[in-house]
Write a structure and sequence with these properties.
2 domains; mainly alpha; DNA-binding transcription factor activity
């Protein structure tokens, strides 16, 4: 089996780690199998023994990201309710995605079949059903929280504006392009929609989802 620069063996984990390092340097658009091979100081064909194409590379990288999240997820501690626990889990996921340039784009749409992922799903379903949700409601809730987190973070990372000569997502610049006479509410709230305090914006959106979920619990007024 070929070895990489530090003398360790070339395997799927080493390739995924190199992919994430390259991602931080070049972004998703600069990530290629050839570039990963060069970073590992091996010929590109050596990678194909372990990873057949770029999609499998992204799958391996996404798995590494999610496993890092799952390693810290535990059952709710005493006194922690399902809302707080769910919020903590998705905040943990967002932090991990933000550690890597385009991290959310890497996770989106990938095939991650790892026991650590299944463990987080199982724990989420158990936590929600223990709180009174039906199994179908809990099963719908997990992807809703996951997709919100990934989607929000994709937009958050895109708004750095690295794809443009000048960042078009600055609220003041967006405001200048809006006809306030025709679209007064849009013009008045653009600062909220493109709030640079993305932590607060994420938490407010998350609270909307969790509050909506809570309304489905038995005994809650519709």
């Amino acid at each position: 089996m070929p070895k990489v620069r530090n003398g360790s063996r070339l395997d799927r984990a080493a390739i995924a780690a190199a992919g994430l390092r390259l991602l931080d340097e070049a972004g998703l658009d600069g990530l290629t199998m050839r570039a990963v091979a060069a970073a590992l100081d091996v010929q590109a064909p050596a990678l194909y023994w372990h990873i057949r194409n770029k999609q499998e590379l992204l799958d391996a990288m996404a798995e590494r990201l999610f496993v890092a999240v799952a390693d810290g997820v535990r059952a709710p501690a005493e006194g922690v309710d399902w809302m707080q626990w769910s919020a903590d889990v998705v905040r943990r996921l967002r932090r991990e995605l933000l550690r890597h340039r385009d991290g959310a784009r890497v996770l989106a749409g990938t095939d991650v079949s790892h026991p650590a992922v299944h463990g987080v799903i199982e724990l989420t379903l158990h936590t929600l059903t223990a709180a009174g949700f039906g199994t179908r409601q809990a099963a719908r809730a997990f992807p809703t929280l996951l997709h919100y987190t990934i989607g929000f973070t994709i937009e958050e990372q895109a708004r750095v504006g690295e794809a443009y000569p000048e960042n078009p997502y600055i609220p003041e610049r967006i405001a200048q392009s809006i006809d306030a006479t025709r679209f007064p509410l849009t013009a008045a709230t653009i600062g909220d929609m493109f709030d640079p305090d993305t932590d607060a914006a994420f938490d407010e959106g998350l609270q909307l989802i969790l509050t909506g979920m809570a309304a489905l619990l038995p005994g809650q007024r519709r």
